[in-house]
Amino acid sequence: AVNIGTDMLELDCHLTKDEQVVVSHDENLKRSTGVDVNISDLKYSELPPYLCKLDVTFQKECHCEGKDNRIPLLKEVFEAFPQTPVNIDIKVNNNVLIKKVSELVSQYKREHLTVWGNVNYEVVSKCLKENADIPIIFCLQRVLLLLGLFYTGLLPFIPFKEEFLEIPMPSIILKLKEPQKITRSQKFIIWLAD
C-alpha cells in the first residue's frame, strides 16, 4: 500500500498470550491461516503463518500473495514505515493491549503520526485516558452525536476531544463477492448514503 502511495495505513491490533502486539484484522485466525485458533490463546512464536494466498474482502476475485507469511508485530510495522501515518483499531476492549500500543507509539515517537480508537465508546475513552498525546477517532456513538449536533445547528458550541473521523462508504458493500444478492432498493439506499 505504501509503495502505491497510500496516505495512511489502517491496522487492527490484538494481543498474544505473551503480550505481544500483533497486526491482524481477526482475533480468530481460521480465515487468514486456516487454523481455528484465537491470537490471545497463543504465544507469538506459536502463531501459524498466513495462507499463501488471501482473499481481499472488498474486492471481488482479488487476492494478495506474499513471501513473508508471518503475522507482523506492531513494532515491525513502525520500524518498516517510520514516516507513514497509521490508524490503529484497538480490536478488543483490553487494558493491557491499550497500554502496550500506547507504549509502542511513545517508544517510536509516533504520537504525531498515529491515531487510535474503536467503534466502541469505552475503548476510545480508555485510549484517551491512557495517552492523550495520541489523537483518537470518533466511535459510533460519538459520530451519531456529531450528526445530531450538526443537523440541529449546535455543533459549533460543543467541544470534541476526537480529532479524526472515519466513516466507511456504504458502496463498499457493492464490491463484496455476491453483490447480486443486493436488491435495487438497497443499492439505491447505498448510493444515497454515499
UniProtKB/TrEMBL annotation:
Record-given protein name: GDPD1 Lysophospholipase
PANTHER family the UniProt entry points to: LYSOPHOSPHOLIPASE D GDPD1, PHOSPHATIDYLGLYCEROL PHOSPHOLIPASE C
Listed GO biological process terms: glycerophospholipid catabolic process; N-acylethanolamine metabolic process
Predominant localisation class: membrane
Single annotated GO MF: phosphoric diester hydrolase activity
GO cellular component: endoplasmic reticulum membrane
Domain GP-PDE, residue spans: 1-194
Keyword Lipid metabolism applies: yes
Record field: catalytic activity: N-(5Z,8Z,11Z,14Z-eicosatetraenoyl)-1-(9Z-octadecenoyl)-sn-glycero-3-phosphoethanolamine + H2O = N-(5Z,8Z,11Z,14Z-eicosatetraenoyl)-ethanolamine + 1-(9Z-octadecenoyl)-sn-glycero-3-phosphate + H(+); 1-O-(1Z-octadecenyl)-sn-glycero-3-phospho-N-hexadecanoyl-ethanolamine + H2O = 1-O-(1Z-octadecenyl)-sn-glycero-3-phosphate + N-hexadecanoylethanolamine + H(+); N,1-di-(9Z-octadecenoyl)-sn-glycero-3-phosphoethanolamine + H2O = N-(9Z-octadecenoyl) ethanolamine + 1-(9Z-octadecenoyl)-sn-glycero-3-phosphate + H(+); 1-O-hexadecyl-sn-glycero-3-phosphocholine + H2O = 1-O-hexadecyl-sn-glycero-3-phosphate + choline + H(+)
Keywords: Hydrolase, Lipid metabolism, Membrane, Transmembrane, Transmembrane helix
Protein species of origin: Atlantisia rogersi
Transmembrane listed as a keyword: yes
Compartment(s) of residence: Membrane
Gene3D superfamilies: Phosphatidylinositol (PI) phosphodiesterase (3.20.20.190)
Similarity field: Belongs to the glycerophosphoryl diester phosphodiesterase family.
